[in-house]
Amino acid sequence: ESHHIEVIVPNMPNTAEPKLAEWLKKIKEAVKTSDEETYFVGHSVGAITVLRYIEKLSPEEKVGGVVLVGGLITASKKKLIDFVKDKIDFQKIKKHITGKIVVIHSDNDPVVPLSDAELVRDNLDAELIIVPGAWHFDDADGWTKLPPARDALLKMMK
Predict the structure, then answer these.
(1) In whole angstroms, how far apart are CA 97 and each of 7, 62, 72, 92, 106?
(2) What pTM did the predictor assign?
(3) Summary mean pLDDT of the chain
């Protein structure tokens, strides 16, 4: 917002027991129609939600770029099975993204393994930024701002 960019942060429903359909609906309500001027930032389960949203776009809809932070792509928790049970169609996702994909991950994330970030990097030709000692990039770990995500987003928007 300080860079005069409209920022929409949807209040995701049922965060204790998230449901993919509810989260996708919430994003659709917030975004309406995606185009080359639409950029997504997703953290943790929000990352897989962003990818699932892009995967379901109509053929003519595009996305300018994506930043995924501590992004969950695989899951062992039963409550997240909706998000990961179907194979991700990385090729379909790539067709919708006109710009860059940046994945930011910590080398010591106790929630999401680094292999999830590497999976996205390898399948979407994404740039991977590893932030040493950042844990899971959440408030409990002291993360209220994330300059690498802001900088990656601003760079791809130029």
Answers:
(1) 19, 6, 19, 9, 24
(2) 0.95
(3) 95
